[in-house]
Every structure is written in C-alpha cells, then in structure tokens.
Amino acid sequence: MKIRPRKTPPTADARDRSIKNIPDTKLPVALSEKMQLLKPYIEKNYDIITHSFYLEGNPRLEAVAVYINQVIDIEILNLHILKPLMLNCDREDLLTSGSHTLIETIYKTSITASRIAKIANLSSLVQTIFDGITILMFDGLDDVLAIDIHGGKSRNIDVPPAEQTMRGSREGFIERVDVNIALIRRRLRDPNLVVEKTLVGRRTRTEVAILYIDDIADPQIVQKVKDRINQMDIDGIVASGYVEQFIEDDPSSLFPQVYSSERPDKLVPYLLEGRVVIIVDNTPLALAVPALFVQFLQAPEDYYERTLFSSYIRLMRYVAWIVAVSLPASYIALLSYQPELLPYDLLISFSKARVAVPFPVVVEALIMEIIIQLVIEAGLRLPQQIGQTVGVVSGIILGQAAITAKLASPIVILIISVSVICTYALPASSLVLSTRIIRLPMMMLAASFGLFGLSFGAIIFLTHLVSLESMGVPYFSPLAPTRFSDLKDTFIRTFMWKMNKRPVSIPSHNPQRQGNTGEEND
Amino acid sequence: MFRRCVLLILLGIQLVMLAGCWDYRDVNRIDFPLAAAYDLHEVGLRALRDEANQEQLIDLAVILPNLAQNATLKFRIEKTTGVTVGNARGQKPYTSTGTYSPGATGIIIVGEDLAGTGLNNIFQALFRGALSPSIQNFAISEGRGDGILEAPVEDYLSMADYLKGILQKSERRGFIPATTLHNFEVWQGPGKNPIMPLIKQKNKKAEVTGTAIFKKDRMIGKANLTETRSLMLLRGIKATGNVAFTIKRNGIILDRGSVDASNKRKVKVERNGDDINFLIIVMLEGNLIEHQFGKLFTENENLQQMIESQIASDVKKDCYKFISKMQQEYRIDCIDISKYAVARWGKELEDKVDQEFIENVNIEVEVKMKLKNTGELT
Questions:
Q1: B75 and B112 inside one domain
Q2: Are B289 and B260 in contact (CB under 8 A)?
Q3: Residue A137: which domain range?
Q4: Going along A139-192, which residue ranges are E strands?
Q5: Which of B11, B32, B68 lies closest to A348 in CB terms?
Q6: Which of the listed residues B181, B200, B223 is the one where a domain comes to its end?
Q7: Distance in angstroms (rounded) separating the CA atoms of residues A492 and A313
Q8: Residue after which a domain boundary falls, among A473, A490, A517
C-alpha cells in the first residue's frame, strides 16, 4: 500500500543542491588569493579557526590550517599534522619535486593523519570546511588538503537508557555515526557487511549510513531504502526520526513501520535476517527496515534467556499490549452498557466505588487518562531524579486527591494505572507511543457504542494492520499473511538450534541461517 | 479511497443501529438485585396495588445492595406486586430510584404456593430479554419466599449471600440439587421433570430441607433429606456428600462411621413385550472419614469390605423406598430414566412417557461402593 506519492529520483544529490550558490572557481596558487576567495564564507563565523604556520625549511613555505572549533580532534591536528609539518618536514626534498607532486609528497611524507583528500575548487573547499574537515592550504600550491580528523567532545558509549537488559550488552549507540558503525562492525565481522554512506539535508548535510549484508539482504529492498533516502529533499535533519518519516510506507498510520533501537546487539540479528539498518549521524537511534508488527513485541532478552522463560515473557508482552489498548475501553463499555456481564460482586464493588463520582464513566476515565499522560510527559522532560519524584508524587498524591475530590473512583485509577504499566512493558518505544494514542479512540468507541464499539475498533485496527506494509513487506506477517514457519519465533521463541532458517517474512536470498539439527555428532 | 470511505460509513451506520450512547446506563444508577422471591399475593399484605382481583397477583421481593458509603444498612428489601412477574417489576419506578436490572439476580426463591400453580407462564419474564447472562439458581421455599429473604443473617452481608453459598454448586458439598434457569428449562423435555432444592426458615435461619418434586413446571411433592440423597443417586446427578454407616451383627454394633462419597450411575433398559425393566447401577466411591471403633484395617482384612457392603446395602434400601414413593405417590419420573426408553423405543413411547409410564415399569437398583482411602496403609 502506497499512500504517499513518491518523486522520481532527484537529478542532483544533496551535496550539489547545497553548494550551488558557491562558484566552482579553480583555486589560485597564492595563499593570500585563496584566503581572499574564502573570506566571504568564513569571516562571519567565529567558530572557524584559521591557523597560519610555516613548513620547516629555507625558504619556509607558508600554510594555513582552517577548521571548525570543537568539531575536529585538536590533539590529532597538533601532533599528527602541524607538528610534523612545522618541525620535521624536509623542505629541501619537497622543493626538488615539482608543484604537481609537492602536495602529494607533503601528505605522504609529513602528515601522519589518515583520510586525506585533495580539493581543487572553491565550492568543494567551502563545503568541506563546513563538513567539519580540516583544510590545509599552502602558498604556491593550487590544491589544498582536506584531512578528516573529526573529533571534539562527544558522549561516551553508555548503557542505552530506554532499552536496558539484564544479560545483554551494556553498549548503546551514541551520536557519532562512525562510532555506531564500529559498534556494529565489532559484532559482525562479515566481509559481506556493506556500509554505504550518503548525505541528507541541503544545509545540515547529515551523514546517513545504510548497512546490509550483501549476500543476505534482498537487493530490491536495499534499492528501495536507498531510493527513498535519496529522494529526501529537505533543508536538514537532526535525528533518525526525520528519515523514518520520509521512508515509511504509510505516514498516516498510527503504527510504526520502521524499527528503531539504540542497541547494536539488537540490530545485528536484524542484519542477519536480511534487514537493512540505517544509522543517522547525531542520533543514538538506528533504524531497521522492513519492520514487522510482531518485531515490536520482541526484545533482545528473548534470545539471551532460555527458551521457556523467553516464550513466557513474550506471551506476557502480547497480553500487556492487549490490556494496554483495551482495558480502559472494556471498563467503559462494561460499566456503561453491559454491566450484567460482570460477576455480581465485582459489579457491586464498581458501583459502590462510583457512587461519589458525579461524571459518567467515560469522563472519569478520560480525566485520569489525560492526567496520567501529562504526568508521563512531564516525567520525560524533567531531569531523571525530579522525573522519578513527579512519578511517585502523581502516583500516590494525585491519585488519592482525585478520589477525595470525587473526580475519579479508585477502580478507574487502578484501570488506567494497569494500562499504563502494560504500555511501558512493551519493549519498543515507538509501539509505546502508538499504544498510548490507540487507547483513546478505543475508549471513545466504547463510550459511544459499548462492546460493539470495542469490537468495531478492534476490527478496524486489525484490518489496518493487515493492510500495512513496510518496504513492501506485509507488516502483520507472519500472522497475516500466515507464515507458519515463522510462528516459532512469534508468540513463543523456539529453541535456538531449531531456528535453522531465516524468517520467510523478510525477503532474503539466503534462507539458510544455520545447520544445527539438534542431533549429537559421533 | 472512495470504497474505503463508503465501507467506513456503512460500518458506522451498522454500529449506530446496533448500539449507541442513548443506551448508556450509569452503573451506580442501576439496581442489581442480589436475590428475588416470588410468591402468590397475600391479600391485604401490600397496599400498593389497587386491582380488584388481588388473588391473581404476584408478590416480588428483591434484596438490593445499598451503594451509599454512609448507608446504615448494607442492603434493603423492596417489595412490589403485579399481575405477572414482569408487571411486578414494572412497579419498581414507583418505589425505587434505580433502573432495575433483573438479569443480575443470582438467586430466585419461589414460594411453594406459587410453585404449585406452574412456573412457566410466570417465569416468561426471566427467559425473555438479553439481560440475563448470569447463572440464576432456583429454590422453593416451604412457606413464603419473601419470608426467607427477610430472615436475619449475622455472618453474611445479606440473606442473598448466604443463599448463594448454600445453593450455587451445592452438589459439590452435599447431596443437594443445584437447579439453574437452564436446568429448569431442559428438564421439562419428554420423560423429564425438574427438581429444585427446598429451603425453609427454621429457628430464624434458612436451611435446605429436601427437594421439591415437579411435574413439568408444577410442583407436586416434596422429598426429605434422605429421599433427596436417593433421588440424587438415582437421578445420576454427580454429587459429593457424607454417607453414614452402622455395621451390626446379631444386634451388636460392630462399627459406625461415615464416608465422603461421590456418585455415578449407569442405566440399562430392557423390554419384554409391554414390560420395561430398568436396572440402575449406582456407583459410589469415596474416602473413609471416620469409624468409631478404631479397629485397624490391617488387623481386620474384612473390615473394608464390610463397610462397603453396609453402605451399598443401606443406600440400596433407601433407593428402593424412594422408587416406591415415586411410583405410587409422585407418579412421575423424577429420576430421569425414561429418556433411555425413549431413546430406544422413541416413536412408540414418546406420547406415553409422561402419562402413567414410570409407575408401570420395573426398576432394579444395584449399588456398588468402593472405599478408595481408609486413612491406613493396608
């Protein structure tokens, strides 16, 4: 299902679009002229540092290093670039070689940093500076050197706060795309792992890495991912969420169609199943496509723990999702329309609890739902310690106050609290958000039409789930369409040694995952 | 997109037709009766009705919980009178604020006078409507039903709670039949007749005193507790209850005790011309609860067999007594065996089975008792 019309692939890439206003002038030989050309682009930016120095020798060769403060690793600049050039550069030898090879001689003999490129025109020079690359310009040489020594201060690799596990790795992605790729590479030393990079955003020029295993991933899906990313025509992106919204199949759906995670150990198995991983610079959340609905109810622990426990916990998560979506709605429907379906004692208990509340059941439930959602939102925005306090205060005091003020009955507080707990028992944050929203229309349907409304809502959502696709792959698979072989890793997780085939729900051109038969070898 | 919109609109219309916010009922504005009692109208007892012919009226008494937190009493008893059960319910708005929801009633007590007139016409209101999903247990009261509801209870929230404990799944606690609305309807098929537990207010307390015997929907007799046990065993209602035994030899009591036994039955039917012979095999199985003379089973190998034989013999004797009473006094099949004959000779017996059938058949009983556990390692 394709809701949003997609454009044909753009004729120029993001880089071309972003630098089209800068003339493509060939750089002059004289350093002063180069600086003169560059001046209009950097003079208003105080974070761009120009550092003049001389290369060792007689006569000394004047040079300028241009870089952005705090974006590069200043220690590498000093130790591996400036120090060798200023102190250890054999100027006599350099002069004997022609100007054509002089620059090559400089970077091959005198600079110990790696990842060096030559730039010959102004537009590339300006863009490279703003990409955070260190530039070395020399007097008398028309080419300049671009040295990638990205660095500066960034967050250390840490435990992913929203996806903690008991037995899994404690490493989570950080904001640096290269570090994040390395975290995957360290776990997946397969030469077939392909890492492709592209730039997204005319102005932010954010690096986006596309990772897949060449001999497993379906080429059509890989191509589709690349096309959709390349079609992005946007000023800038600052998080992977931007990419997610551009590449998903049905942007108007409440359900996430792109899986996001900040755990490398979660994404490596996805790569091994034939999925494509997208890592966006400056975001600790990586994306994985195609995504299936059942995937959002699975957690890495499912594979770290033993089969029986994993299956039990996974089943609990399904129960939690159903409860989170339908418990308040069921409460409203039963108490408003079909109270006789409840056991008598429970019914009387509910009735007694509601005697003091002047509102209909739905208003009471909505008041508590909105309060709880606002408390959650406040908790997310506040510092961790204060957030916890707000949670406790709201849980105990607000709940008690609501009962005393006759805004809500104790039962509705219990119902909403249980549904919120069940919501946060879900392992995927994107499904948590969906569940929080889905609960509201379900409550309104139940309030308007009782159990019929609840059934109607369930049918609408199920029909929608069945019709969704992620990168062209049926989203509700392996349930609909039913892929029986994948059911062993859906509601339950079968024994590891029995999972010999990759999931058929994700197209791949190498279906065999492992060769275990469960039989002992002689 | 157009098709989807049309589909959604159609589904929406269908939904609106099925239910809607106009059906909303606030749960704390509904009167959920805990128990109800139906009686023939006692002339002059109520002043609410102004019909001239008060003999044909029915009194309805219900126990309703008081929901208010500061209410002095946990429950109240409301009484109305009407031409029918439904009409009696219809008088509720004159005396009560809540919307009445009869479907929640778990216990229905019927006065024996009313039960004697036939219940089907009266209970029409219970069968109709979609608001009766609960299991409703029936009992017949000796005397008026509302008297039972009004009896004081100290250890329970209300008499309804006490009756619920007594009547619901009662066959698991003793040889007491549990009759639901469903049973009452099903047991009126060809060759079948309902039974209901009989309760009575004794010493300001309600207790089970036996079984009410019905001919279709009309109560025709009563069975006491011993007869009720035989009735349950012969009828094949699986129950668990206590059976006492006394072993006597030459006028001397050798042992006395009781067992907790569960029952099963098998029925065989044979025909010899016009004579139909039934053989009911009652199988009892249970554990010894006590035996007073304390002799060890290891010391007396025959003791277990003696107990089993004694119980089988006692039960068999009681069963024959009940069968005799059934054939001579009740004259209906209240042990539910005619269905076996109907199953074999259906067309021939279908019309006769409810008319002078059971009193003319020969019924043999065989009782087998097995002590599973004596409490000793034998």
A1: yes
A2: yes
A3: 14-147
A4: 144-147
A5: B32
A6: B223
A7: 9
A8: A473
The residue that leads in pLDDT, B40 or B352, is B40
Provide, as residue numbers in chain A, all residues whose Cβ is less than 8 Å from the Cβ of B34: 344
Residues of B within 8 A of A354 (CB-CB) are 26-28
pLDDT of residue A348: 86
Instruction: Pick the range with the lowest mean pLDDT from A338-352, A450-464, A469-483, B332-346.
Output: A338-352
Q: Is B236 exposed, middle or buried (0-12, 13-18, 19+ CB in 10 A)?
A: middle
Average confidence (pLDDT) over A325-331: 96
Highest mean predicted confidence (pLDDT) among A91-100, A164-173, A323-332, B36-45: A323-332
Q: Tokens representing B247?
A: 């072993």
Q: Do the Cβ atoms of B68 and A344 come within 8 Å?
A: no
Average pLDDT value for residue range B38-65: 71
Is the Cβ–Cβ distance between B90 and B58 less than 8 Å?
no
Q: Is the pLDDT of residue B132 over 70?
A: no
Distances (CA, A) of A160 to A285, A432, A478: 10, 17, 29
Q: Are residues B212 and B320 in the same domain?
A: no
A354:B69 CB<8 A: no
**Cβ atoms within 10 Å of A209's Cβ, excluding its own:** 19
Whether B92 and B199 share a structural domain = yes
B24, B34, B101: residue with CB nearest A360: B24
A242 and A351 together in one domain: no
Residue ranges making up the domain that contains B260? 236-378
* Residue of B223, B240, B119, B138 whose CA lies nearest to B183: B138
CATH assignment at residue B366: 3.30.300.210
Cβ-Cβ contacts under 8 Å, A355 against chain B: 28, 67-69
Q: What is the ipTM of this complex?
A: 0.76
Is residue A100 scored above 60 in pLDDT? no
Judge if B112 and B200 occupy the same domain.
yes
CB pair distance less than 8 Å for A339 and B11: no
My answer on whether B305 and B363 are in the same domain is yes
In this structure, the answer to whether residues B177 and B40 fall within a common structural domain is yes
| Contact yes or no for A449 and B28 at CB 8 A | no
Question: Which is nearest to B196 in space by CA: B266, B141, B143?
Answer: B141
Nearest CA in chain B to A361: B26
**Contact at 8 Å (CB) between A263 and A300?**
yes
Chain A residue numbers touching B28 (CB-CB < 8 A): 351-352, 354-355, 357
Shared domain for B270 and B214, answered yes or no, is no
pLDDT of residue B52: 53
CB contacts of B104 in chain A (<8 Å) are 339-340, 344, 347
**C-alpha distance from A417 to closest chain B C-alpha (Å):** 21
Residue B361 lies in a domain: yes
